[in-house]
Fold these 4 entries.
Entry 1:
Amino acid sequence: GNRNHLAIVIDEFGRVAGLITIEDVLEQIVGEIEDEFDIAADEGDIFALADRTYRVSGVTPIERVEDAFGVKLVESDMDQEFDTIGGLIAHDMGHVPKRGESHSRAGLDFQVLQSKGGAVKWFKVSPEMP
């Protein structure tokens, strides 16, 4: 089995702020630890892949994704509370999605490639097939 040691993070008001791993704690002490699960984070935010899909960082601004794909992802004021594509998709799904989960919006399919620390780090984005 795959066992992960997790800790619950409590904020100054006694509320649950999230979950962390031992790797998260060590990275705060010694800096970023690169392992086989990490995708280089300093390469920008949207990349074309060979199979005509795109790798998109979860922290990419919604407007940048809209411009890159020529779509409108947010229509109402309700959706304006999110700045990043990761936050918008997680809100749509009602939870922080895990690797392999996918969600469609505005004619695009967002498949989670990697999530870490309670947020999506990378999506694989492709136009939905008609």
Entry 2:
Amino acid sequence: MKLSIFLATSGAVLAAATPILRGRRLFVETKVVVDFVTVTVTEGVTPTMFGNRRPSPKPAVVSSSPVAPAAPTTPPVVVVPEPTPEPKVEPTPEPTTAAPVVVPSPVAKAPEAPAAAPVVEAPKIQEAAAQAPSGDDYQSTALYHHNVHRANHSVPAVTWSQTYADYAATVAKSCDFKHDLSPGGGGYGQNIAMYAGTNAADDNASHAASGGIGDGWYNGELHIFPSQDYGKPNPDMKDFEAWGHFSQMVWKGTQQIGCATQFCPKGTNLSKAMDGWYTVCNYFPAGNMGGGYGENVLPPLGQPTVLGH
């Protein structure tokens, strides 16, 4: 039995300095107008609302005074007159005062809380299920192992870019396990992976790539990403080196990828003791942009695990 050692490491993710996508916000302004009617009530006057004012009629004051008897015009006859009845004194009526009409001031109604802005659900993207690659077609393999996992996060499938694949091939041929964005002048994201073993020479590029992409970058890092930070513009970054490949893979704003996998015999910078394979994938637009995680790294749907190997 051959002794085999499997090494899998993944490099950190480089990203451009500016956010790729900016979120849109919806503001709802609600204006509440409250009309106040001020009513002043004065005794004896019927209050009126503001409008065409008409003078209120003053209440008529009705009063009576006792009437004196008329003086006699003939010489007095000694007659015992009947006692003159005392005039009846009508009581002076109280001035008629209109009862004040009290119009309560309208109660200022507390403005109703504005209705919550309607929740606008983003249209669900109906993506065709990622098709498993047939045979050892490298391009199909790389696309499949990206898109099958992107679908689990409700984001669109990426397409192949030969330009970025050529940049990746330039880096992979160096067999030097480190990030290099110099081909093409940068401006894209990059994931790297390698494995080495005593029987690595018997493997092929497609198989090596599927292991790095599916098992290393996705299945190996999905559960390290802080799940409580889905939806936040910036998650806790202390373990970024451990989950940054995963977040680049499923970054919603990324539209194109280009990958290459190079066989590196033992003695190279990749591995001094064993043969190995070096996989490089480039991403455009780049992911892992500060402030954009909430919109671009969405929680998983819980679909069945898809293994790379």
Entry 3:
Amino acid sequence: MRKELQDQAQPLRDLMNRQERPPGQVEVIAVASGKGGVGKSSLSVNLAIALSTLGRRVLVVDADFGLANVDVMLGVSTRYNLGHLLRGERKLTEIIQEGHAGVRFISGGSGVYELTRMGEEQLQAVVGGLLGMRDPADIILFDLGAGINENILQLIGAASELVVVATPEPTAILDAYALVKTVCERCPSTPMRLVMNKGESRKEAQNAMDSFQLIVKRYLNRDICALGHVLFDSEMTRAIKRQVPLVISHPNSAAARDIRAIAQSLLDLPKEPRPANLLSRLFSKWLG
């Protein structure tokens, strides 16, 4: 099995070996949530577009493997996904699609069984292949699946930073805390950011952010930087149904303004040093 995985990953490993620019110049942002239904994917898509309008070249990877929906939110019909790459049917560059505002994306595939069983080495090879491209992006944004599993933790550990998305609902707060606690144990050097989504009011969202930061500091002795909050907006639901991201369909809505402010905050934050560069973290076990 190990040899089979290595053989499947070899083309991507070759891409990684031909890398021509330092991996530190590509920022990898993982967006995660403790539970589904908090608006993580819609935030990821709109955040990517907001970052693009701020002059960054953004590549979104739909990492909810087998249950991907970023392509649907972008209103783009995709012919290829990561499943075609893993089966050797398409090259990495051939599965990259063009979305709104210059944002490119890779579909994680929907209903693709082998993607739900992607092994650690295949996952590492995909990320290494992305970083090994001649000119991939300024920012690679991974929209992770909800909850916690080994693949999610692998990607969080490789990321430059983690953005945790929660809502003020008690269940979402509890699940977000469980995610942060696990990340503190498994990926202690990954900087964490917080976005409070779907707030009914700015006061509610701010109070939820303040309380979450306090709990994380008190019980985990970690700081989680609050990027901001996004007010609940019924136009977001309609934008998803129309398959046009909110920041494009309703750029002056309160939620769209909140998302643009979060994008700016993300760029303004000082980048925290990591103990090792990204590729060495990804491949230390695999290539060792």
Entry 4:
Amino acid sequence: MSEQKLNAKKEKVIFLKIEMFWLILTNICIVLNVIPLSTEQEIDSVGKLRKRIMLGQNAQLFEFPFQVAVQERLSGRWVFFCGGVLVTEKKVLTAADCFDHLTANKVRVIVGVLNLYGPPNQYQQTIYVSNIHKHESIEDELQGWNPNNIAVITLATAAKLNLNVQPAKIAENATQYTETNTHEKWMKPPCVITGWGYTENSILPNTLQKASTRIMPINICQNMWPSFKDAFSDGLFLCIKSDFDLPEEHQYNGPCYGDGGGPLMCGPNNQNLQLVGIGCFVEPSCT
């Protein structure tokens, strides 16, 4: 595919890479990303994004037991606004800018959920939030572009693990899923993104959506976003897009108009999935 065609098709999404990041948990330290995250800071506000899964499919029960729905109290009712990923029984990873002007006592999460509306399934649990911690480089709210757009939600009570509530396995080395050089067809194992954001028909789905995708070569990401060249080369960012060999009208499978903290999971044939990234920015031209 020509460089001109690549530049014309800027429906890409950037994910914050989850690798070698020190996340302080209860009596444990898990290696996750590249920057230390201070658990001393409680979030009062950081910002909200919506997710749009384009050309996705309905997920099945038990398929993504780590997926979390984050809700806020708004005008007397609970409203979904961001995704997240369960990493321990009491910790959820998400994007920091999901919480602009929003305190922890106005947030709750649902784990084990497949359908946002209607009767709950027997596995899901609604859990209130005790603290929300943002990366130490972010103050009250995200100002401009911050490559450390990540937050950790601490649950008020531990999630009870079951068939549809399980922590995600974190990739020890995310580079196994990336390419360094440009290829017409990338050969690394495919990945999957999930969420309840608006579909290509501008409809908010009831059922969790999934879409297969691949991580783009680093040099293509750098060409698309030269301002973030260092963030890509330093391993902070990944960007994704569907395979080039798909028909043109189906070349964009993925989030659009913001990802809102949803997970990027990778594994051979979408099996044995590992957490590789958290959605932090989407190119708005995909709309």
